[in-house]
Amino acid sequence: MIGLIFTLIGASFCIIGIAVFLFVKVDEAAILGLIYTPIGAVFLVLGLLFLFLQRRKEKMHKQVREAGHYIMATVDRVICNTNLTYNNMHPYIVYCNYVDERGVMHHFKSRNVMFNPTGMFRDNQVKVFVESENLKYYDVDIDSILPNTVIHTVNGYQSKNKGVFLCGVIFTIMGSVFAGIGLAISLLAVSYPDRWMFFLIFGGIGGIFLVIGIIFLARELRKKSQVKRLKNSGDYVNAVIKSVAVDSSIEYGGMAGTSALYKNLSAAGSHEQVYTSHPLYFQCSYAAPDGIEHIFRSESKVGLDQERYIGQNVKVYYKGDDFRKYYVALEEVHTFL
């Protein structure tokens, strides 16, 4: 994506610069052409280089797979890749190790996985396709030890967001205050000739805040009614809370909003403590009769109690065969402290 964007920007700058330099018969325009063209050339070269490296990487993966030579590596840990964000979710990378006949340990990492696969591995041994003598070029066959999954994203997720609700309350109060000040000035300052200007300024600002606040509040109240309708319908599946993941759509500033994420990172049961300024959510798995494993996400919270919920059954209320609308009822989970 970066390569494509850089290539398009670079090509556009080059075209503009060359066109201005050739066809606009003004000295100042010629200078602009000389400026735009080299800048565009830099973006174009970088974009083409990124595309070339990505294409080379894909070709290498294809070649090592087609060669069919592989080694068996051991799953070591799962790491959240906070450098990338897709659909408000950070992907995850699976790291694995292999010890050769000389006792040298080699480290490999998988492609980005769009859910936290912790607790979902069918085996802790994974195929790593490599060149016969060179382990530098490889491709981790992570799909072979993961279930056939369908990820249900936040687009179909129905739950309240206390942060959005609080913003709605604050914006509504601010809007009412500003509108009230404007109205009070217009009514009380009768002798002041420009009182309507104050009314327009304060009323306009207050109206904007008021509309935004009402939208936020209406959105959250609508979610509450949707959740209630889903639960009243009685349609649900029993899922298992498998792991926690990071909600990259919300970020708290400073340490005040920091939460500690404890997660099982390997099949051997080792634990690593990860600190994040994002809230967390549970990944819940439902194995359908057709063999597909559906992954749902709960509402996001700071400081989820993983030890209390991981492995527990939870009801996922839904609407439609494709689970387009759903709600993970964490409040109905009976846990034991």
Lay out the secondary structure.
Elements lengths: L1 H22 L3 H41 L2 E11 L11 E8 L5 E5 L15 E6 L7 E3 L8 E3 L10 H27 L6 H39 L2 E11 L12 E6 L6 E6 L3 E8 L5 E5 L8 H4 L3 E7 L5 E4 L9
Parallel strand pairs: 6-11
Antiparallel strand pairs: 1-2, 1-4, 2-3, 4-5, 7-10, 7-12, 8-9, 10-11, 12-13
Index terms:
single chain, 337 residues, alpha+beta, six-stranded mixed beta sheet, five-stranded antiparallel beta sheet
Q: Could you explain how this protein is built, in words?
A:
- With 337 residues, the chain is of the alpha+beta class.
- It folds into four domains: 2-66; 68-146; 162-220; 231-332, no CATH class.
- It has five helices and 13 strands.
- The protein has helices at 2-23, 27-67, 162-188, 195-233, 306-309; strands at 70-80, 92-99, 105-109, 125-130, 138-140, 149-151, 236-246, 259-264, 271-276, 280-287, 293-297, 313-319, 325-328.
- The strands form three sheets. A six-stranded mixed beta sheet has the order 6-11-10-7-12-13. Strands 3-2-1-4-5 form a five-stranded antiparallel beta sheet. A two-stranded antiparallel ribbon has the order 8-9.
- Strand 8 and strand 9 form a beta hairpin.
- Helix 1 (2-23) runs antiparallel to helix 2 and helix 3 runs antiparallel to helix 4 (195-233).
- The longest helix is centred in the first third of the chain and has 41 residues, at 27-67.
- The chain is flat.
- It starts with a helix and ends in a 9-residue tail after the last strand.
- Residues 254-276 have low confidence and may be disordered.
